[in-house]
Amino acid sequence: MTKKRLKMKRKKEKQKRKSANKRDPxxxxxxxxxxxxxxxxxxxxxxxxxxxxxxxxxxIERLKRYEVNKVQGPxxxxxxxxxxxxxxxxxxAQKRSNYVPIGRRGVFGGVxxxxxxHWKKHETVKVICKPCxxxxxxxxxxxxxxxxxxxPIQIIGDDxxxxxxxxxxxxPEVMSPIDTLSKKRxxxxxxxxxxxxxxxxxxxxxxxxxxxxxxxxxxxGDPSDRNPNSIFDTRWIEWARKVEGKEVxxxxxxxxxxxxxxxxxxxxxxxxxxxxxxxxFDDKCKNNAASASxxxxxxxxxxxxxIESCTKKQVxxxxxTSIEYLEKYSTGLDMLxxxx
Length: 340
Prior knowledge:
Elements (H helix, E strand, L loop, with lengths): L2 H20 L18 H24 L18 H13 L3 E4 L6 H11 L4 E6 L6 H13 L2 E6 L3 E5 L18 H38 L13 H106 L1
Parallel strand pairs: 1-2
Antiparallel strand pairs: 2-4, 3-4
Helix pairs in contact: 2-6
Pfam families: CRS1_YhbY (PF01985)
GO molecular function, one term: RNA binding
Keywords: RNA-binding
């Protein structure tokens, strides 16, 4: 690819992006923001509320462009399914993996086209709606049934619908209905819807803030009108009276605490005297027990000494006898050697 062709290609891509961004609701300008200094919070909140309400009106006008007049869909003869047939269809739909997704674009021509393509080979098809708000599945089920001519058999959870094509199903020539948006326009509509929801949420929060501000002013007065240095302000006089009352109450509590402290000290002295008497009695008992144990120990010592002296005498006697026996044995051996 030459440089000239590459430049032309990039230029075309840039133009496409610009045209797409023009329809982006985030570029929907209410006017350039000006840096302003507000006197109080009320002016700031009111200014933001005005801008948000203008944007809300613009978004509603833009969304009207994407409205399509409803046309009567394919007429389907009412088929009364028996309980067994309905049960069979449910089980068959759960086993099979064919499904049609519904995303942020919602129900548009491509969704109905895909359903008819699935019904060419299968009797049932699952429609999975993600993201799906609570209660929105019922709306999707009624709208898809009107556009496609299918019969909603079961709603699984909050995001899945099972559709049955019908007994005498014939594939239509135009599978995407006329009264549906294209894929591109459906995406644009979803962006405007999302922007409108966020703006309305912001308006609700701002109105609540303004209400809280008015309550605060009603209770405490306007903060801009306060003069804390003024002596004649009634609010400050009331505050001073309250402080004086608190000081009197604190002095009374101090006196009470002093008397309680003295009574506690007296009770502590009595307890100390009682504990000293008890400790003296315990010491006497311990001394008596120690003297008794010493006497027992001395008696035991005398007996032990006697036993030790007896054992020593026996050992000496045994040693002397053994020495005499050895001497006799040695003399006998000497005599035998001499005889030989």
